[in-house]
């Protein structure tokens, strides 16, 4: 056998970091961005349902929140990326269309991340909508705007700004949760870290340490920039807390 | 009058670039009531916080009963127990009932037993006419009631002097009277006090001396009569005129204070 | 069989529930990890919050650094790091375990209290939760406001006495709503111990899927258990919050 030849020399720190970046970063970023965007659409819709919808819509939205906040992301990933993957193809007669089989796990993880994040983002946007000063809506209505106009032109622009600090936290949550994608064989950063050191016991902790640092570099500057700076800026503008 | 309780010598204080106090000195005798007034930002509150070392001065000396508080190594906690403070925003301990707000200093600082602290606290509450509210939490009380408890909290420690930092300026007009009433009674029973306030009626009635603070220095000092009848500096005149516009003429107050004195 | 009249879905659920002893073992393990993690997280978190808020420039920085690094990295990476560390440092790992046996009706059950993996799991979850709880606690301390401490000091209390008797009693009441979130959702995260081989609820679910291959029914049951647990914890904490509220505030 050729296994003697296949024992490579242990990678150094730079190689570990490089491998994680090249092999793992694309999937991590794709999952994070798509998960956040999907969650944004779901979350904003749910939040509007909760704040402005009637009793039934409110009940429906808060039920969704409870469900997807309560189930661990790992369970969601298993369900959507392994057990329900045959649902990602719809066949009418002989013609089938849907997600190519090799992308189904990735799509499943994306769904899991988006559905979960939607439940959390709903809470974020709901809080933001409620913390827009109530006088703003009154003033908009007094100008003759309809409720929908007031929501679209006055309340949402303010609420979205107010939501930025919490939303940057949600970004950190999603990027961290995307590490669970390794469970279904997706090579994102954590999986890449495990791969590159898999033959070298002494490097296991090192490569996990390196990937942890990379996650930190991807989250901390952003949460800090959008968290504290934005909070300060909002305070200067006198927005929220009304 | 007796010996000086408090002696402030050339106190300076700045926050970064901003010089708030630029050499303030005065003495406070036992049973004396000193009123400090002046425009906002003139350093009145800072001066009080320098006196009890919550915000120690950069320079200068503060003597409490001839003990220098600026001396290194001195136990400021013990010294502070002898200087009462009443705050503009009351600062009552939100998680404690009125009675416990008053007794906690005795219990935690002076180590007084629970029963004794309770009976002393009740007495102090009685003094500010709040005994029947003893079991209420601060948030259940009006601003005036909260401030009276704040006064009782300071009073119960039997301090050498009580500092009042604009005690009525956060109150609605109809609640100011009940607090001033309590303060007047304290003054008349010989409590040593420094009061930062713009209530000229109160000042006229009980102040032994008034200090006008502006830009971090004492611009003018004198009795209430002096200030109401013939203030020297233009800044004081302008300021008193502004108070006039806000609160009505001080001439009437002067008359009141004279009548008080005649009694 | 007597179940044959029932629809397939119900039969599947019942087939999974046949293994209630396995599910119960996994559930107890999850609760066991949860309670430890929550406690370690609370006390360490309180300590960190006080250091960050009241420590000097250096101590406060160190506490902040810990909090930010833990919050900025995935729990999965943290638990793997702790788990791999002895291997990478070439520290020999001895196999040891404390366990207890018990019996419910006809099922014999074994519950492992502690072994190297569980220890790593508890440590990782506790150290992680501490960082999050520290931030909630610090937020509560900040919201009490500095003036309360100033008032305490004006009565002659030392900083320490003021923090312990005036600030913390208020902060601990104020923190409950935010803290409830962490407390209610922590059970969800105990699931990561599955990666290092702790037989927790999720691991048991896999075992059942492997044995019976009824994944839908298995995961529905697991999800229901989580939902019930989390909403129960939320409800209990809500009651505590109302009971400890300061009247009028």
Description:
The complex is a heterotrimer of chains A (242), B (263) and C (249). In chain A, 75% of the residues lie in helices and 3% in strands. Chain A is mainly alpha-helical and 242 residues long. Mean pLDDT of chain A is 88; it is low at 1-5. In chain B, the strands form two sheets. A six-stranded mixed beta sheet of chain B has the order 6-7-8-3-9-10, with helices on both faces. The two termini of chain B are 20 Å apart. Chain C has helices spanning 8-17, 20-54, 57-72, 75-88, 116-144, 146-154, 159-174, 176-189, 201-212, 215-244; strands at residues 98-104, 107-114. A two-stranded antiparallel sheet of chain C has the order 1-2. In chain C, a hairpin with a 2-residue loop joins strand 1 (98-104) and strand 2. Chain C is globular and about 75 Å long. At the A-C interface, helix 3, helix 4, helix 7, helix 8 and helix 9 of A face helix 3, helix 4, helix 8 and helix 10 of C.
Strand content of chain A: under 5%
CATH topology of the domain at 27-187 in chain A: MetI-like fold
* Order of strands across the main sheet of chain A: 1-2
Please name the CATH architecture of the domain at 27-187 in chain A.
Orthogonal Bundle
Low-confidence stretches of chain A: 1-5
Mean pLDDT of chain A: 88
Annotation, overall tally of beta strands of chain B: 10
The run of helices and strands of chain B is EEEHEEHEHHHEHEHEEHHH
Distance between the termini of chain A: 73 Å
């Amino acid at each position: 056998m050729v296994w003697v030849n296949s024992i490579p020399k242990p990678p150094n720190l730079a190689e570990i970091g490089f491998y994680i970046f090249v092999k793992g970063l694309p999937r991590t970023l794709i999952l994070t961005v798509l998960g956040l965007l999907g969650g944004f659409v779901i979350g904003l819709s749910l939040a509007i349902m909760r704040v402005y919808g009637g009793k039934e819509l409110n009940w429906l939205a808060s039920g969704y929140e409870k469900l997807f906040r309560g189930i661990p992301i790992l369970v969601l990933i298993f369900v959507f990326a392994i057990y329900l993957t045959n649902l990602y193809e719809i066949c009418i007669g002989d013609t089938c269309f849907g997600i190519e089989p090799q992308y189904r796990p990735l799509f499943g993880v994306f769904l899991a991340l988006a559905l979960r994040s939607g439940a959390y983002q709903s809470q974020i946007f709901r809080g933001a909508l409620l913390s827009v000063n109530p006088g703003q809506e009154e003033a908009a209505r007094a100008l003759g705007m309809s409720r929908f106009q007031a929501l679209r032109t006055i309340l949402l622009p303010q609420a979205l700004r107010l939501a930025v600090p919490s939303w940057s936290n949600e970004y950190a949550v999603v990027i961290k949760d995307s590490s669970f994608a390794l469970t279904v064989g997706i090579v994102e950063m954590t999986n890449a870290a495990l791969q590159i050191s898999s033959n070298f016991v002494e490097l296991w902790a090192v490569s996990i340490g390196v990937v942890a640092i990379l996650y930190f570099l991807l989250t901390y500057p952003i949460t800090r920039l959008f968290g504290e700076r934005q909070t300060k800026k909002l305070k200067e503008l006198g927005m929220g807390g009304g | 009058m007796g010996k000086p309780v408090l002696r402030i010598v050339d106190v300076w204080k700045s926050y970064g670039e901003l010089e708030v106090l630029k050499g303030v000195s005065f003495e406070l005798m036992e049973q004396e009531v000193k009123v400090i007034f002046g425009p906002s930002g003139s350093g009145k509150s800072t001066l009080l916080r320098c006196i009890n070392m919550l915000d120690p001065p950069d320079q200068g000396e503060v003597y409490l009963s001839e003990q220098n508080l600026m001396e290194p190594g001195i136990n400021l906690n013990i010294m502070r127990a002898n200087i009462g403070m009443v705050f503009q925003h009351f600062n009552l301990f939100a998680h404690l009932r009125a009675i416990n707000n008053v007794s906690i200093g005795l219990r935690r600082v002076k180590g007084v037993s629970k029963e004794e602290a309770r009976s002393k606290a009740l007495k102090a509450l009685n003094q500010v006419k709040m005994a029947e509210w003893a079991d209420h939490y601060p948030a259940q009380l009006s601003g005036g009631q909260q401030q009276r408890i704040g006064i009782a909290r300071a009073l119960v420690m039997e301090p050498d002097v009580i500092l009042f930092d604009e005690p009525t300026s956060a109150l609605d007009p109809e609640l100011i009277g009940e607090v001033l009433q309590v303060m007047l009674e304290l003054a008349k029973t010989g409590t040593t006090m420094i009061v930062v306030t713009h209530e000229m009626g109160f000042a006229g009635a009980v102040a032994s001396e008034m200090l006008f603070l502006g830009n971090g220095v004492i611009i003018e000092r004198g009795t209430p009569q002096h200030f109401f009848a013939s203030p020297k500096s233009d800044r004081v005149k302008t300021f008193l005129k502004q108070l006039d516009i806000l609160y009505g003429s001080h001439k009437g107050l002067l008359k009141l204070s004279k009548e008080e004195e005649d009694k | 069989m007597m179940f044959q009249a029932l629809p397939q879905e119900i039969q599947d659920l019942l087939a999974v529930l046949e293994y209630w002893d396995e599910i119960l073992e996994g559930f107890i393990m999850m609760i066991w990890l949860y309670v430890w993690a929550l406690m370690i997280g609370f006390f360490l978190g309180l300590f960190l919050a006080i250091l960050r808020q009241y420590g000097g420039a250096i101590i406060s920085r160190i506490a902040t650094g810990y909090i930010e690094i833990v919050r900025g990295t995935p729990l999965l990476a943290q638990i793997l790091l702790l788990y791999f560390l002895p291997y990478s440092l070439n520290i020999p790992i001895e196999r040891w375990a404390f366990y207890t046996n018990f019996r419910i009706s006809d099922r014999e059950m074994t519950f492992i209290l502690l072994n190297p993996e569980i220890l790593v799991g508890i440590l990782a979850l506790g150290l992680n939760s501490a960082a999050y709880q520290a931030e909630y606690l610090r937020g509560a301390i900040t919201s009490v406001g500095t003036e309360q401490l100033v008032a305490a000091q004006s009565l002659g209390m030392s900083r320490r006495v003021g923090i312990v008797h005036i600030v913390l009693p208020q902060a601990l009441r104020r923190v409950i709503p935010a803290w409830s979130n962490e407390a209610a959702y922590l059970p969800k995260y105990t699931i990561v111990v599955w990666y290092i081989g702790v037989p927790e609820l999720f691991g048991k679910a896999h075992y059942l899927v492997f044995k019976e291959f009824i994944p839908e029914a298995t995961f529905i049951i697991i999800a229901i258990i989580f939902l019930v647990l989390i909403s129960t914890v939320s409800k209990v904490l809500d009651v505590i919050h109302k009971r400890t509220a300061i009247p009028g505030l």
